[in-house]
């Protein structure tokens, strides 16, 4: 067998994503890591080629899972952990090269995803427990419903208790067999927002409304306190008698009633009569 050295780039397809649900018979059991941080040498078809310090020359890993943890991505559909079931493994004495054959063609997936990974783990499969009744099934976890699949393979099935109360404003969990639905904090740390939670959509933060309805003030919020500072300048279309034309080149002082004007904007009343006087 000739193996050419390829770059340490792994081509993987999303085979099985990790979820919070209880692992079922034959699925990856993350509490049982058989081999961790093995170096990837290359991939070829269904085969993952590696150099490992403690090779497995027999078939003991068949049925277990290869766990690849890609580099994090900004893609919202990114899956942080990807699994491939091992269907065969070979060991070559020369150079401690081991080949793990997976259940998928790593080079011929409908959608290829490239990850620059150099290591992977091997995870044991969840043990299948034969049963004839629910009494034969007990995983010691009070937060799972333990049943016997009498209409299927007659093996135990451990299903996580569903503590979801349908409220997006609670954090749902199970502790010692009891569901807990604790209110979440929506505090965004900003004193100038009103933080609230909707049971359907979750947290939201609405800016404090500091608008005083006066177009001649600049409205802002700092430290939870609103400020409404006068705007001074003709460019803003505002009149501010308090500003000083001598020190502020943009200052515009409006004309009072009876004073001369050339347009409505010159007058504090906003109305300039035909005789050139403010109304």
Structure notes:
With 279 residues, the chain is mostly beta strands. It folds into 3 domains: 116 residues, no CATH class; 49 residues, no CATH class; 50 residues, no CATH class. The protein contains no helices and 16 strands. Strands 2-3-6-5-4-8 form a 6-stranded antiparallel β-barrel. It starts with 9 loop residues before the first strand and ends in a 49-residue tail after the last strand. 15% of the residues are buried. The N terminus is likely disordered.
Please describe the topology of this protein:
Layout: E1 10-12, E2 28-44, E3 47-51, E4 65-68, E5 82-92, E6 97-102, E7 113-115, E8 119-125, E9 144-148, E10 156-160, E11 170-175, E12 178-183, E13 193-198, E14 202-207, E15 217-222, E16 225-230
Antiparallel strand pairs: 1-7, 2-3, 2-8, 3-6, 4-5, 4-8, 5-6, 9-10, 11-12, 13-14, 15-16
From the structure above, extract its key features.
mainly beta; six-stranded antiparallel barrel; 279 residues; disordered N terminus
What is the structure about, briefly put?
By secondary structure, the protein is an all-beta fold. The chain has strands at residues 10-12, 28-44, 47-51, 65-68, 82-92, 97-102, 113-115, 119-125, 144-148, 156-160, 170-175, 178-183, 193-198, 202-207, 217-222, 225-230. The protein folds into three domains: 10-125, no CATH class; 134-182, no CATH class; 217-266, no CATH class.
């Amino acid at each position: 067998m000739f193996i050419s050295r390829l770059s340490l780039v792994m081509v993987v397809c999303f085979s099985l994503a990790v979820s919070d649900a209880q692992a079922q018979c034959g699925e990856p059991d993350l509490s049982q890591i058989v081999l961790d941080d093995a170096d990837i040498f290359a991939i070829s078809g269904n085969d993952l080629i590696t150099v490992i310090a403690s090779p497995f020359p027999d078939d003991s890993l068949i049925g277990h899972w290869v766990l690849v943890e890609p580099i994090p991505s900004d893609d919202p559909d990114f899956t942080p952990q990807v699994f491939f079931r091992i269907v065969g493994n070979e060991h070559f004495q020369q150079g401690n090269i081991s080949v793990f054959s997976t259940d998928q063609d790593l080079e011929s997936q409908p959608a290829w995803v490239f990850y620059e990974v150099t290591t992977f783990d091997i995870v044991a499969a969840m043990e299948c427990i034969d049963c004839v009744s629910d009494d034969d099934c007990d995983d010691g976890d009070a937060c799972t419903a333990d049943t016997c699949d009498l209409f299927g393979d007659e093996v135990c099935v451990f299903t996580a208790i569903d503590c979801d109360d349908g409220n997006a404003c609670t954090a749902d969990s199970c502790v010692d067999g009891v569901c807990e639905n604790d209110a979440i904090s929506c505090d965004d740390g900003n004193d100038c927002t009103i933080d609230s939670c909707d049971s359907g959509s979750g947290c939201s933060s609405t800016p404090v409304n500091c608008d005083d309805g006066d177009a001649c003030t600049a409205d802002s919020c700092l430290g939870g306190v609103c400020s409404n500072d006068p705007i001074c300048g003709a460019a803003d279309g505002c009149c501010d008698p308090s500003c000083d034309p001598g020190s502020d080149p943009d200052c515009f002082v409006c004309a009072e009633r009876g004073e001369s004007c050339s347009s409505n904007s010159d007058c504090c009343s906003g109305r300039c009569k035909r005789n050139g006087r403010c109304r």
